[in-house]
Amino acid sequence: MSETIAEMGTAINDKWTELTGYSREEAIGANPTDLNLWADLRDRDQMLAILEVDGRVSDFEARFITKNGKQITGLISSESIEFGGKSFAIYVIKDISDRKLIEENIRESEKKYRDLVESANCIILRWDTQGKICFLNDYGLRFLATL
User: For the domain bounded by 14-95, which CATH number is listed?
Assistant: First the structure.
């Protein structure tokens, strides 16, 4: 929870300290900007603007920097609440760094496959269960055009 948007929380869980590398003592009461948590302050500003207008943010994707300088990607959700006459914001950050890496690896693999198929000097085709051609690479198109 954060008492104001400008300062860090009054409570931070173990997972947050594990994820960021900062201890509770370093983080509680600190200004997030001083900790350099946001890889891009425009993301922070955009997220805070949404929180200010809507009172909540759901799954806002942003990059963060850990204490040791490692970049992680997270989905941040937040909601403004009133408690004991004070305004607070509760933040939840889900680390999706592994998912983003897997997505990038899949994109690279798809590009390699596409490049291989498009540059092959043999016919590559795919057909459906009725025998209808669903895909034919450029070489196949050129070859069949000569018949």
Answer: 3.30.450.20
Asked if residues 68 and 21 have their Cβ atoms less than 8 Å apart, the reply is yes
- Given a contact cutoff of 8 angstroms between Cβ atoms, the answer to whether 86 and 3 are in contact is yes
Cα R_g (the chain), whole angstroms:
24
pTM of this structure:
0.73
Q: Residue 56: which residues within 8 A CB-CB, separation 6 or more? A: 77, 78, 79, 80
Sorted by sequence, the CB contacts under 8 Å of residue 17 that are 6+ apart come out as: 23, 24, 27
At 127, list the tokens.
Answer: 């057909």
What confidence tens digit (pLDDT) does each residue in 114-146 have?
A: 999 999 999 999 999 999 999 999 999 999 998
**What's the pLDDT tens digit per position in 86-107?**
888 889 999 999 999 999 999 9
Domain extents in the chain: 14-95, 107-145
Dihedral over alpha carbons 62, 67, 70, 73 (to 10 degrees): -20
Give dist(CA 118, CA 133) in Å, integer.
17
